[in-house]
Specification:
- The protein has helices at about 1-15, 40-60, 65-84; strands spanning about 25, 35.
- It is mainly α.
- Strands 1-2 form a two-stranded antiparallel ribbon.
- The radius of gyration is 23 Å and the shape is elongated.
- This is Family with sequence similarity 177 member B.
- InterPro entries: FAM177.
């Protein structure tokens, strides 16, 4: 009976909690359904992208003088070339 209890605990750990919503639900032709949950890494990347977009949206390069304007674009070009 202990083995069954141990297996039951493993199954409970492997199934994501019902509180989390699946990122994507895939429906197959044969009727099977697969729920895909996001990982912590993906969530962190999404948060970083949102923070980067909020920073970029607050800075208006058209209102900068020449020095900060060139620094802004050099930083943007460097960050996009290294991140891809």
């Amino acid at each position: 009976m202990e083995i069954d209890g141990f297996q039951q605990l493993d199954l409970e750990k492997s199934v994501p909690s019902e509180k989390t919503t699946p990122r994507r639900i895939i429906h197959f032709v044969d009727g099977d359904i697969m729920k895909e949950y996001s990982t912590e890494e993906e969530e962190e990347e999404e948060k970083e992208e949102q923070e980067e977009q909020s920073i970029n949206s607050t800075l208006d390069p058209s209102k900068l003088s020449w020095g900060p304007y060139l620094r802004f674009w050099a930083g943007r070009i460097a960050s996009t070339s290294f991140s891809r």
